[in-house]
Amino acid sequence: GDVKVAQAGTLNAVGVRNDRGNRVDVDFRVISFELDEILGTAVKPALRKTLIPRVDPGVAQPANDITYLDETTRIVRGGDGAL
What we know:
The structure is a single chain. The chain has 83 residues and is mainly β. Helices cover 0% and strands 47% of the residues. It has strands at residues 2-5, 23-27, 31-38, 41-51, 63-68, 74-78. The protein is extended.
């Protein structure tokens, strides 16, 4: 996908405003899921699902907020509030 610096003041999916300047917007081109194992048992052939997201201006922009703890450690919070 494509990643760009988010505009100041924008809201993510849970309504958190970008007031720290630490948000990047993510535009997904393709999302792929693959299941090749269930509870230690191989799935042959692997199950695969590919999605091509549609851009919907009425839906919050996918984004990540990034907090740097130090030079080597960062925390990334998804637009839905998940760590």
